[in-house]
Amino acid sequence: MNLYKAIIVDDEWLLRKELMMMLTQYPEIKVVGEAMNIPQALALIDEFKPQVIFLDIQLQGASGFDLFEQGKVNAKVVFVTAYDQYAIKAFEVNALDYLLKPITRSQLDLTIQRILAGESVSPEKTQPLSYEDSAYILVNGALKFIKVASIYCLVAEGNYSYIFFKDNKKELVSKTLQEWEDVLPPQYFVRIHRSTIVNFELVEPVVKCKNYTFLVYLQGFEKPLMMSRRFAAKLKKLLPF
Asked: Is-contact 52 78, C-beta < 8 A?
């Protein structure tokens, strides 16, 4: 029998105890620690290297999302929230599951089954993101939340893609451009080439070149991006050039 070490991160001690008690019904899950805030959670992750984290989203004075910005998370994450909107909109299939408060035994049964089977929850239809949202994705082997507004452009790399941020910093993610195009807000993100999507909020000049191609300059980027003739007509509706 595989034994999964788990930690519980929730700022309400009663809810931690209730979930811990419920988890005693599953011999494959061993709760090795509980935390009421992000620093405590990071310390537990460093000490125990858990395979599963039950993470509350709304922590006192912080967000559960902060865990991914402050440390490297290589565990299966089960989000715990009282608000369905968080679970449906912001999470990608890398999030194993989510539990809505109050947690029921039937909910937890399904979650534990998915943990033991190594499955992820994939919504029937990917929910589009707004410009103010964050995308929850696997980046270089770790789960992170990336603010949509911080993305400058995306460049295809086979079945993967590079996300470019300010000053040409980039991260490789296991997501195709088509998958990005399906979830990013189209009023901000436009495909300028079969291998490139740009955040047009950050576009500066667009320079016409020979053969009906264009160079697209982004704020903070030294080198322009090439826009093909095929995609120029679409961008013209959004930007004057």
From this structure: yes
- Do 52 and 76 touch, CB atoms closer than 8 A? yes
pLDDT tens-digit map of 62-98: 888 788 878 888 888 898 887 665 554 445 434 557 7
Q: Is domain 151-236 annotated with CATH 2.40.50.1020? A: yes
> Which tokens belong to 35?
């935390």
- For residues 216 and 110, give the distance between their C-alpha atoms in angstroms, rounded to a whole number: 48
| Fold matches, 4-117 and 151-236 | no
- What is the fold, at CATH topology level, of the domain defined by 4-117? Rossmann fold (3.40.50)
In the chain, domain spans: 4-117, 151-236
d(CA 157, CA 111): 33
Q: What is the pLDDT of residue 105?
A: 93
The structure's pTM equals 0.59
Q: Residue 140 above 80 pLDDT?
A: no
